[in-house]
# Entry
Amino acid sequence: MKAVNAEQLFGTATGSAQKDWNKDEEGKAGLLHIAALSFSKLSDGLLNPKLVLSWLLTALGAPAYIIGFLVPIREAGALLPQAVLARFIERLEMRRWVWVSGAVGQGLSALLIALAALAFEGVTAGWVICGLLACLAVSRAACSVSYKDILGKTVGQTRRGAVTGLAGSLAAAGVFCFALLMVGGVMKDEHAVIGAVGLAGALWLTSAATLAQLPEQPSSTESEADTEGVWSILRRDRNLRRFIAVRGMLVSTALAPPYLVILAGQSEGTGLGQLGALLVASSAASFLSSYIWGRMADSSSRRVLAVVGFLGAVSLSAAVFAGVSGYAEGRFVIPVILFALMLAYHGVRQARSTYLVDIAPEEQRAAYAAAANVVIGTILLLAGAMGGALSWIGPYGALVGFAVMSAAGGLLALGLKTP
# Structure
């Protein structure tokens, strides 16, 4: 019965991997992808550096300047190593083991972060956790640069978005429950959050064991990617450069939420109220949007990128209007705007992944992913470094800038080639 259900869900694979590939194998692959990705995404939510780790370091007494390093370390560390990793991956026949190793690395790093939070306080806790987060980020880079290639080999093009979207929805439901526990006051101190971080580590190890069972066809190790580097691909592929520009503009949907929290004027000392509210908005938006965006991305990921760019711009413009007009003082105004922005953010994540898999040549998916991620990692690193300088502008100036970026990303997306 399981094989029949999986067959109905996923059909057959496409491309060169279709050789000796049958419906039962792709069905099993699809289910394993959903399970492993659900565990991994849930772990991401439980150990969110922007929210969860920031609150935890605050509770441990770490200074603000150390807490400010968390997001740049996590984001840039997960992206910048990918140029080197891509060349290594494309010399391997069985590439799922790179993802499995990365998941193990993330799991062990998360468990060590939980132990460090129990053992240290203040500055020591801050630096130790930042160092472990860097290890986690590099492990995540291995997962990120290898996953699109693995997905492309084992799941057909018209079903990839549905697989990743369903996994996102399942993970979001778990994060939503976690957020409700904080908002409801069940989680009252750092020990409950430390437990959640430890759970994230265990789930990453479970995801590694799950994807290790994936039925993967051997990849060719003799391809154009062996002689062509990441920067050569960037110079040659104009559409890839445009896609990177779109993705660079749409990072505004990820950078803007803290300014909405500031605009809402929430302040509860430890920041637990802010953490819970933001997680509720993010996880609810992810739960409702991931599967829908996945289906739409299967139809036209280029169109999804344009739509979410405009949605982000409208949401941020509404936030500015609500602030200057006084409507932001309403109880539900900023949460609704934040939900819309998170809807756009999760749409960006879904569509960018699907589009990149679709436009990349089969044997160069890892190199294309690395090329895009290295540039975006640099953009995020620069944005993190300039965060302190931008604070003098205030929330309105930052939100206007992010709205312009999001709208520009939507317009640029309209000019992307159809895969």
Remarks:
- The longest helix spans residues 272-325.
- The chain has one domain: 22-215+225-413.
- Residues 23 and 76 are 39 Å apart (CA to CA).
- Residues 1-21, 266-270 have pLDDT under 50 and may be disordered.
